[in-house]
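This part of the workshop introduces the protein records we will be handling. Each record describes a single protein and holds just a pair of labelled lines. Instead of coordinates, the fold is spelled out as a row of discrete tokens. To make this concrete, we reproduce a full record directly below:
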Amino acid sequence: MNIAILGYGVIGSGVKEITKDRVVKVFDLPIKKDIIGDTYTDSFDDILEDSSITTIVETMGGVDLPYRFIKEALKAHKNVVTSNKEVVSLHLDEFLKLAKENDVYFLFEASVGGGIPIINTLIENVKINDVNHIYGIMNGTTNFILSRIEEGMEFSDALALAKAKGFAEADPTNDLEGLDMVRKISILSSIAYHTFLDVNDCSHFGIKNISKEIIDFLKEKDYTVKFIAESYKCDSGIYLNVEPVLFKLNSLTASIKDEYNSITFFGSTNGKIELSGKGAGKYPTASAVISDIEKIKDENCTMDLNLSGSYHLLDRPKSKYFVYTHESLSKDLYTEKCGNYYFTKEIDLIDIKNPIFYARMNTYEEI
């Protein structure tokens, strides 16, 4: 089984390292030629026209070029495996249809959860379950940062350490603002609810304004902050959201530290299913890519997903919040105030003007 890799970054190099002699060609910029060696090519057509290559692994990141390459690969009757959550979240339905039309596979396990086999687990479960709720920590970078702040680091130092360890990109905006998790929860929800969901329908609020002072204050109140992606489906519609959430220090979710992820979904037959593992890093994500490659080799995968359903987007429900703001809140909105920190009643978030940071109070069932 001969493989070509598009993009020789952290994940692409990990895939090549593990698969070794299966890799026939590696596509990247000329600056990577000496690093890649004999398998280097700067021509995608060279890969498409090589009949010995049956599977293309896309680990480039971004949208425009990967989108074009994936489409052309599928139309050329080549299997595609990708870790690119951005392009998957925008074009999953189209890719699946193209793969089916051309009798090949399009697999994307590595696009969500790093080394956690969440996508294949979910695909198998929706065959026999009505899944109506998904939530969890789906970004290893921000969970690593929050863990370091909880241990006493300042935000800037925790972010610098995440970059040094290869968890955070040079520009960490997608992680800190929650855009990375928006894409992931949209992918999982599309599979679970048999409906291709628009990523723009997922609201998000990030953690860029969190600080050691906020974490220390919450610790005194027996809380910690986790960055959570969530969706649920009910008779009236579908809700998607990414935001910080407060959990009790002794809760199960609070115990998920460092670059680990934890994703939970609820099925009508199997009940609560929870998976956890490393959600960031070279080898965990590369291993998910390799898992998809092995499934193709063994012809041990079915991707006949139906994403044709329609949906109504639900508004954000009323909730209780922890809020840090320089604005004065009306007394009828909160139950407790300490300086610029507030614990609110059950309110609409729009009642909070210009929050510097907020976290929703946890409503999940915890052990």
The CA atoms of residues 333 and 344 lie 6 Å apart.
